[in-house]
Amino acid sequence: MSVTEQAPPGAGGDPESEAGTDAAHARLRDRISADSLTSRRDYLRIVATVSGGLAAGGIGVAAGILHRHGDSEQLPEMRKVADQLLPGESVAFRFPGDDDRAVAVRLSDGTLVGYSAVCTHLACAVLWRADRGPDGELYCPCHEGVFDARTGKVAAGPPPRPLPRIFLTEQLDGSVWAVATARSGEPAEDALCRQFRDARPDMAQRLGCPGAAGAETTSPDRRRT
Ligand code: FES
Prior knowledge:
2Fe-2S, disulfide bond, about 220 residues, Rieske Iron-sulfur Protein, 3-stranded antiparallel beta sheet, 4-stranded antiparallel beta sheet, globular, binds FE2/S2 (inorganic) cluster, Rieske_2Fe-2S_sf, alpha+beta, 3 helices
């Protein structure tokens, strides 16, 4: 029986009955306070659980728990990004998966760069701003995060890590293709060797990847980022 279904305490002038009534009142008060405490504790637990769940996405991204660009050890399937990309132009695309937002930019000096377009702060979409500085910048409007367009490194705002790099290649016909990814801050050589070693041993060998047939061990100071 719940507190709200308690039978009413006895009524009348009988002292025994009144004593019983007082005792019943006391028990009722105890149960009400116990139930209130329980309810409050349960409520707080529920609130904490729901709030924790809502916060978990952001924390997961910040702590690197959730899927990020470059997490896979597998070499992704090459994907065409654009028929051509001229200096000062950018294009948004998806790579390596259909849900992975990415951006490719041709800097004014002709350098081709590609990055994950998922902000390393709380996963908002990163945009290319050509009007900011000689190289433009990669800008996250959620909390004013800024990434260097040439390196992907954090230039301003709260993002904790650089944007993961996407490796691009340009074909003779001018088309631009995405071929591989790197984890945030991972040296290019490590990222490429990790993905090419099994899938493209010929490429791994040409890169001099450690463990590739005929490759020399690569010393850390030969690594480029
Ligand atoms: S989500 Fe990009 S700066 Fe916060």
